[in-house]
């Protein structure tokens, strides 16, 4: 009981902390952020991602500004646009996501009025002409006349600037003062407004504000259906459009059941329909609705407004459609950061809300959702707190996964079947944290697992890999398995001669220093040291810890082994000991890796054809006078990162299929230009050789020898001489066969 008492106590404390958050007693920032991320993810995964052509967005875009001039346009042009939309195209209703807060003086009417009232007041000809022209020059009047008696909803905005000035006039409030008295709401109160001039507002069917609500993380997920100003309440643009579209104006707030303290919370706004029934619009305590995003940007048809003015749009694109006028032009600053885009057009948010109200797709987040969240946190937390400490790690993992999946399923069912948004971050964090707490507790109590891994693998792999393996010990074992790996063999050239020239203690010192220096390089690149075979070294990469770059790390090891040997040789020569040379061979492929041997002795090693080929490649390095050979499969895995010299195509003892062999030169970008030039000439020589163009090949090999004398060039020159005397014939495949290991 003592073993599980501490985890249970810590678990219960964690449950209580997260219940406080779920019950909205206080808010924990990280939990709120995670809830927002989860909501956004569910929204993106479940939104239709289709285009709804029932509503069209008339876009004041860059094209429109280029053709029609900078915004705002003259009201005469706006009047023409109204006639085009309703008389020519036959739109059903129009909403403005722009505001006309100032009079239009672009016609010069104000200047003419000054002349008529002062300098030219006694000029009858001017006065007569002015009276005739005045109606045409009063652009606001023309625009108001175009709006009047048409289903047009204007837009306006509120501001929190306490020192600001109001402009224009507000429409009739949706609810009068006192409507929400005694109710628990947090309806946003604004200090000032910017509305349309009286002439336009009086002519319009209605108007609505287009203020969004920006959440704590800077994203706009909601829009207030109702806001407060000086004790009265005003509708949003989307709500005003829907009310006028349906021809209904009776809007009734719906509240939750009255609580013990006499308060109740706002749950929805109900639009009573004359034909019967109620259109319910879900809202939260801020009188805001979640925007039912249909998809990413442009989930509604966008039409450049200049094309409407110029009648370049087919009539069927707009006939009988709902329309909103807004802007995507960057300079007009109507772009929002939303869950579906960081530069999302504000007008499209209103479009989503309008169609969401009509289709009934707005998600609910009623007050009793808090009770659901609290209940889920309590049940899942208490169950896991008392259950996990009594289970093995494997069973605890299954239980944790089951609870997570159950919570996710419940949440998704609420989302789909009831249209409810139920928070789940608190319960998810609780489950994950309780699982981590119990696993960590078991880790510290039973740390012998790490000691066991160190005992099993410590002699083969670097300490940092043992540390990595200990984090997930169940994934590592000594059991044999197939894997894609790279193996390395190295051998000292002329070791017999070296050993005969040294005393036994000197030879032991020499080998200890040599093997020690080479092992440091192997471990540097996270290789697994297989064994020492006298003066030979065998190592491999990719097991027991997976290494996607096993070929690259083996190749780097082979190159650096030669560098390390040169440093060691300086010390050896200074003591009068022989200068050492090594041959290195690497090969990649499918190998069997695991603990192999007999009951008397076992070792963690690799076996297979790919391993045998790696050993053969090390053996034939001396045949080509090179210190390092890589097999064809290793070359294919690293050819984009390293420069190679193709040496030959060979058929080694024990294998019928020929393979290409390569000498690694260095990393791409680190090989000297003169070496690259030499390699280019070598490739030309190799092509001539394989095409049996002996004269051209001989010239190339001669030039290479003059450029940089090398045994390889002499080898191929001799082959050319032999083939001249005894041509291999048309069926020659250019393969060199080795009969010895």
Task: Count structural domains.
Answer: 4
Count of helical stretches = 25
Number of E strands: 26
Distance between the ends = 65 Å
The major beta sheet can be summarized as:
9 strands, mixed
Structural class: alpha/beta
Rounded average pLDDT: 86
Uncertain stretches: none
Shape: elongated
Helix content: 40-55%
Multimerization status: single chain
Describe the structure.
The protein has 741 residues and is of the alpha/beta class. The protein folds into four domains: 2-46 and 370-445, no CATH class; 62-359, no CATH class; 477-666, Nucleotide cyclase, GGDEF domain (Alpha-Beta Plaits, 2-Layer Sandwich), CATH 3.30.70.1230; 672-741, no CATH class. Helices cover 45% and strands 20% of the residues. The strands form six sheets. Strands 18, 19, 20, 21, 22, 23, 24, 25 and 26 form a nine-stranded mixed beta sheet that branches. Strands 1, 2, 3, 4, 5, 14 and 15 form a seven-stranded mixed beta sheet that branches. Strand 19 and strand 20 form a beta hairpin. Helix 13 (393-418) packs antiparallel against helix 14 (425-445) and helix 24 (694-707) packs antiparallel against helix 25 (711-725). The two termini are 65 Å apart.
